[in-house]
Amino acid sequence: MNVGQFLEQARDCPILVIGDLMLDEYLWGDVERISPEAPVQVVDVADEEVRLGGAGNVIRNLVELGCRVSAAGVVGKDDDGDLLGKMLETAGVDCRALLAVAGRRTGRKTRVLSNSQQMLRIDRESCENIPAVTESRLLEAVLPLIPRQRVVLVSDYGKGVLTERVLREILAAGRAAKVPVLVDPKGEDFLRYRGAFLLTPNRREAGLASGIPVEDEASALAAGRALMAQCSLKALVLTRSEEGMSVFLENGSVTPMPTRARDVYDVSGAGDTVLVFVGLGVATGLSVIEAAALANVAAGIVVGKVGTSTVTAADLFTAAGDDSGLNRKIRPAAELAAILADRRRQGQNIVFTNGCFDLLHVGHVRYLQQARQLGDLLVLGLNSDASIRRLKGPKRPLIGAEERAHILAALDCVDFVVMFDEDTPLNLIESLRPDILVKGSDYTPEEVVGREFVESQGGRVELIRVVDGKSTSNLIEKILQAYQS
Question: Which residue range or ranges hold the Cytidyltransferase-like domain (predicted)?
Fold first, then answer.
């Protein structure tokens, strides 16, 4: 799986999410005593957080991956509805199809946790079907958006927004516009989703809807094929917890995929994650099998986190490839751009420098050590062999690019190494968007390539004093003199 290419194509990908939007509230605390009032534990709350939940968790994951998301749904005209809308707008989500309706309660699920374990959940919500007038308003807002999307993701939590009429018209509009509609279903009646491109039921849901309890490989096969026929699907991704998932296609093929889960802490939101990555995979041109494989990796990541969590670019790179040793540091530009975007959101300052670093010497090492001290991580842009030949002549480099990259990656002060083939690193700098651009004191600020771009983004240039007499050219001359005499 080429994670870098996938993330590049996901950026700004237009996706509509429609479904049951709610808030997820988390209360974390310590338990040290039993209440004197009743035989229950007392939780001393130390921290609390409110996140987007339900279909909002689908949206959070898509935003994390850089997609251009539109949200559609119905919330109450209450404080929680206002908060939910503001959270979506702050995340850059198009909310023109989000309706606030008087008399309806915005859903809020409150989870109480201690030592990373859920102790109690409290639900406050409305579950009745929205009335016909609200259906009409919602469809009037949603249907014009569908032809502009790569995919439509339907996140059904059974809270009354996705009525039979709403589903029927959304599915029909998707087929008419040739926009795939993927559904994370709920309940026992999957005929409501007839004509969808793909469904992502879990084992229990598939068993209830098909009338065939999913208990082993044979029953999973029977249930999946029954649902494919009943619902006229192009594909179905049946998730089976610790047994992985099974992917059914309209040509009759079935592909089992073993679980990619590691330590399981919380399965909250795992179904949302599967919907997100299967949908985004289809939107970016992957086959359903490839998209499901990606979703399997992502689901294995999210169940290792507490609460409804997002999967970051860095998570994907770690899970999909070799993230150990020096391979963790040496990254293609597209992958590194995604990783740095994640680090930037965490508040880390990124330092960038570049050079040939042919025959590493003490001047290089001291320079890089000082550069690393200016921020939270140091990215080193390394000239390719072809680039060095153009700059320094046909006899250079003395050491090939792969060897130079591994030598530099072995330095503790270097966090990432990335190769570039151009004569200057300007394109790389614009892609990586460092906060601090570093060069040696043998340059003036005006001579530093990328200075104007970095400063326009609020960053700065730093010049580090070079060690006198220490250079690759001097080292080569010294070697020649020693061995030609």
Answer: 352-444
What beta strand segments (E) does 125-173 contain? Answer: 151-155
> Strand, helix or coil at 413?
coil
Establish whether 462 is an annotated binding residue.
no
170-179, 214-223, 272-281, 388-397: range with lowest mean pLDDT: 388-397
| Residue 76 to residue 319: CA distance in whole angstroms | 39
DSSP states along 332-371: -HHHHHHHHHHHHHTT--EEEEEE---S--HHHHHHHHHH
Q: State residue 345's pLDDT score.
A: 78
Residue 322 pLDDT class (50, 70, 90 cuts): very low
Q: Which CATH code, of 1.10.230.10, 3.40.50.620, 3.40.718.10, 3.30.590.20, is assigned to 326-483?
A: 3.40.50.620
Q: How far apart are CA 467 and CA 479, in angstroms?
A: 19
Domain edges within the chain: 3-24+51-102+129-322, 326-483
Q: Is 204 annotated as a binding residue?
A: yes
328 labelled ligand-binding: no
For residue 112, give the nearest of 306, 258, 250, 291 by alpha carbon: 306
251 is in an annotated binding site: no
pLDDT tens for residues 223-270?
999 999 999 999 999 998 777 889 999 999 998 888 754 544 444 557
Active site residues: 272
What does CATH list as the number for 3-24+51-102+129-322?
3.40.1190.20
